[in-house]
Write a structure and sequence with these properties.
single chain, 136 residues, alpha+beta, 4-stranded antiparallel β-sheet, 5 helices
Length: 136
């Protein structure tokens, strides 16, 4: 983790297809913070908007077997098919997050922050829905 490197000063907004692609990419790279893309396909609102809020820089210096660039660990706000919103984490390398669209106003960014602070985690939502043993 590099505390000296500034985080991106932007909140990203993505559609469900992009979210699945980012989850698959994180899995292909062996990044630790990700959800099972099958779960995301089954639960994310098909026409939903999902948000990424930068949390910290992460490195895999402890995994020399993986040749992965330093990457940002994002807080992820997912809009579900049910209309609920849940929070997770997603590791995204810079080449993948740079082209993603960003929120267009400070007000929208602050709304995302409030939703992130209020939404349950995916695990909490699964427990509430009686699916605590479901695959992530």
């Amino acid at each position: 983790m590099d505390v000296e490197r500034p985080l991106p000063h932007e909140v990203k907004v993505i559609d469900s297809a992009s979210l699945v692609r980012l989850e698959e990419r994180a899995g292909d790279l062996g990044l630790s913070q990700r959800l099972d893309p099958t779960w995301v396909r089954a639960n994310a609102a098909p026409g939903g908007t999902h948000s990424l809020w930068p949390a910290l820089w992460h490195t895999l210096s402890h995994r020399p077997d993986l040749d992965v660039a330093d990457h940002v660990r994002w807080e992820l706000l997912i809009t579900l098919r049910t209309g609920d919103r849940v929070v997770s984490w997603l590791d995204v390398i810079p080449d993948d997050f740079t082209p993603l669209p960003k929120v267009t106003s400070r007000e929208e960014g602050m709304r995302v922050r409030r939703l992130l602070d209020q939404a349950p985690s995916v695990w909490e939502w699964l427990l509430r829905e009686g699916e605590g043993s479901g695959r992530l």
